[in-house]
């Protein structure tokens, strides 16, 4: 058996684990002349407890410099939730892509949940203890028939954050054992729906909180501002917050409930701190009868909250979330489709860009960007760049491309994003969109480019304006006479109306 000595040197990149949704990619590690990492992906990517009988867990081991897999890999895979081990075993795969069938099974009576977990597969002849299933190599299209081992147990029977620890024990040959394991932590989220009710004078309004992080508690509705509030466990210590990429919660309220009706805007608060508009996304598109409001609280927002509240928040073990509906706004919008960058043929991606018409020249305008497929469904996990251009001068005012050094583009997890831009003057502007693809592997199905034109007018102030005090105008004597005669029945209604119209025309009487 060959033993390879390697230098395990993490790259000098930000320590930011992906507490993500259906997939995550770990930080790469130096391995010879390569930078190797693992990527974990679930299929389906958005799993809700109780809605699936099985899921696929794909683990890919590859060199990020060439995007090529290492072959003949022995993996040690562990699944954890809330500090408890759920599964641990060795697996072998020939082509560097390991696919494992996960089958949730509730009702474990053992003290340790891992003791309820069973495994399917046979020991590989050249990789002692590692499970392997003979058959076709797995692809995204043949998971039902390809050879893949299985794990059955108390996995995904409870919503929240799951930690998947992957150790590479051998690579490039089943008999090649690494002198030092390559160890990676990846994270995925599984959703859990919790049902609540808002009690009104006339009815009980059902509300669903879909949590991807942990159980929520203390649901409250405040009639004074129609706000919804709840909390959940969270560790605000800086060491932990630095590791959290995103916390995702959904609030679903029927549109028939007036404060949450179609067209409403919202503000969101975490521990009393207002979060950025990009961290609170309103989805009125997915359901005809329900508004979905997403809390997508990124690492930057979490750091900002800790900075705002100071060290007193570090020992806090809860995250308090609050959603407050605002007044209804009338939106302006434009929509266009994308074409591919080779033949300029239409791809199944439509982009809708909308903004509050009260925002205009001389102000920061929040633009909502929504991506739809050919069936008008939102496209999740889309990665894109947006550019704002003055159409008259053809000068680019701003470009937003994301701030992740490892992954191109802005990530719109739910197919909706908000970008804010200062508009210097009234006029026509062009918005260019470039979509790189979807998911961690940049699936090109929805990739393409497109442009839309928008017209920006003046800003309409929402502040209360104190009316200008004017000297009362002199009312002509004949108008006074007419009013008296009309009151006494001397003149008819038509004659009196003509006098009122004269007052309006001359600006003496103002109608609001």
Would you kindly provide a brief summary of this structure?
By secondary structure, this protein is mostly beta strands.
Please tag this protein with its features:
mainly beta, 512 residues, 8-stranded mixed sheet, single chain, disordered N terminus, disordered C terminus, 34 strands, 7-stranded mixed sheet, 4 helices
Question: Could you characterize what this model shows?
Answer:
The chain is mostly beta strands and 512 residues long. 8% of the residues lie in helices and 48% in strands. The chain contains four helices and 34 strands. The chain has helices at residues 238-241, 299-309, 477-488, 493-505; strands at residues 2-4, 23-25, 29-31, 34-43, 55-63, 68-69, 73-81, 84-93, 97-104, 118-120, 122-124, 127-132, 150-153, 160-170, 176-190, 192-199, 204-211, 217-222, 227-233, 246-254, 264-270, 273-274, 280-283, 290-298, 318-328, 331-339, 346-356, 363-372, 382-390, 395-400, 410-412, 416-423, 427-438, 448-456. Strands 2, 3, 4, 5, 6, 9, 10 and 13 form an eight-stranded mixed beta sheet that branches. A hairpin with a 4-residue loop joins strand 16 and strand 17. Helix 3 (477-488) runs antiparallel to helix 4 (493-505). The chain is globular. Mean pLDDT is 85; it is low at 1-19, 463-474 and 508-512.
